[in-house]
Specification:
Layout lengths: L5 H28 L3 H24 L5 E5 L5 E4 L8 H13 L2 H14 L11 H16 L2 H15 L2 E2 L4 E2 L10 E3 L6 H11 L2 H17 L10 E4 L6 E5 L11 H18 L2 H15 L26 H16 L3 H18 L19 E4 L4 E5 L2 H17 L2
Antiparallel strand pairs: 1-2, 3-4, 5-6, 6-7, 8-9
Helix pairs in contact: 1-12, 2-3, 2-13, 3-4, 3-5, 3-13, 4-5, 5-6, 5-7, 6-7, 7-8, 7-9, 9-10, 9-11, 11-12, 11-13
């Protein structure tokens, strides 16, 4: 028998361990990231349709305006740049430019994005992540223009002014109905702060984002990992005053898009920090969604998981699109059965959204891509209509699937 020195023995053992680890992981990676040819074809068709729809939309969109939804009279409803959704249209165009390299899509994106630039100084909203990072963030990622970087850093500074260290959160609304309201949606705006921290080297942005995520994890979630919509705080003590809803069916219910915001937000925070607490939180939220007895067979949620009258209530395609995009990413941070389950669930959601029940026909739906989203059912606002953010996260999910599936 050949004898080895102590050093050689350690090297051989190390090599064996690494080989075993690689062999064990390889089948999981292949299983969880294997593309379904039929879904890849559907994704390509949906993206091709999106290009056509958004080129048609550009022709009908008034100067100085951004698309929002379909109005009650069936016409295109638009908004100015101060509306929280203002970044989604240019962001979607930039995703479609990334898919096609079509210069006309880039030109339209930059034209409409310029409308949003003034919002970099807006300290009256928590939605600067949506508004600025979905637009300027994608533009900087693609084109590396230093002017876009400057806009984003200013936006992050503006957003940071809404942080209260006593509460440990960024204030969501300046609304006299509440004292210091924080909504689960706000998790999405933390990505702008994490980007600003990594880019500038100023860790104060990351400290705010992590503190907000930790406080939200502590106070927003029930034992089953469903989320309240709004937690209202005492800004002087940091104490919780009440846990309520504004857009859900009841204070105790699980508003569908809110659950998707939480899933996406904590998956993103794990990506940015590698803090396992955020990964575990994302997994718990995913399990709540996927194991929920009211989740329909096609995997596109009703507007609230506890809505009275299920199944005869509206769906929320936007919640499905956001969740699908988040689940694809979550599957990359997990292994084994968890990774496969998250990936497969996202595939089912995308298959449904790519089908005729949700995907509009060319020239219809006011040239939006997805049908059947719900903005705020209790306020009779944007019910069973297209929404700009549903399209944004749907296109993002399709591109993620094509990029990550092999």
């Amino acid at each position: 028998m050949k004898k080895y020195s102590g050093k050689q023995t350690i090297q051989l053992l190390t090599a064996s361990v690494l080989l075993a680890a690689f062999t064990a992981l390889a089948p999981v990676q292949a299983q969880t990231k294997k593309a379904k040819p039929a879904l890849v074809q559907q994704a390509n068709r949906a993206l091709d349709l999106a290009v056509k729809q958004y080129k048609l939309m550009a022709q009908h969109l008034p100067d100085g305006q951004l698309p929002r939804t379909t109005g009650k009279d069936g016409s295109l409803m638009t908004s100015g740049p101060n509306w929280w959704c203002s970044g989604f249209y240019p962001g979607t165009l930039l995703y479609l430019y990334e898919y096609t390299k079509d210069a006309s899509l880039k030109a339209e994106a930059l034209k409409r994005m310029a409308l949003v630039e003034s919002q970099k100084n807006n300290k009256g909203t928590h939605d600067l992540g949506f508004m600025m990072y979905c637009s300027y963030g994608n533009a900087y990622r693609l084109f590396k223009d230093p002017a876009y970087k400057a806009v984003l850093l200013t936006s992050a500074s503006s957003l940071s002014t809404r942080f209260n260290p006593t509460v440990g959160c960024i204030k969501s609304w300046d609304n006299k109905q509440f004292t210091f309201p924080v909504i689960i949606d706000n998790m999405m705006n933390l990505e702008l702060l994490m980007w600003a921290s990594h880019t500038s080297g100023d860790d104060s942005f990351a400290r705010i984002a992590k503190t907000h995520a930790n406080t939200t994890m502590k106070n927003h979630f029930r034992p089953d990992y469903s989320s309240y919509h709004v937690v209202d705080y005492n800004p002087n003590t940091g104490g919780v005053l009440r846990k309520i809803t504004h857009q859900g069916a009841a204070d105790s219910s699980a508003w569908a898009r809110g659950q998707a915001w939480g899933l996406y937000g904590y998956t993103m925070m794990y990506r940015e920090t590698k803090d396992k607490a955020y990964l575990n939180q994302a997994k718990h939220i995913a399990d709540f969604i996927l194991n929920n007895p009211t989740l329909p067979e096609d995997m596109i949620p009703y507007w609230d998981f506890d809505a009275p009258g299920i199944p005869n209530v509206p769906r929320d395609a936007s919640a499905g699109a956001i969740a699908a995009s988040a689940l694809l990413e979550l599957s990359r941070f997990t292994t084994g059965k968890d990774a496969a389950r998250y990936w497969n669930a996202a595939e089912k959601m995308l298959t449904s959204l790519c089908g005729p029940a949700y995907l509009a026909k060319e020239g219809e739906n006011n040239n939006f891509l997805l049908m059947h989203s719900t903005g705020s059912f209790p306020h009779h606002s944007e019910v069973d209509v297209p929404l700009s953010y549903a399209d944004y996260y749907f296109v993002e999910a399709l591109l993620r699937y094509k990029h990550w599936a092999k």
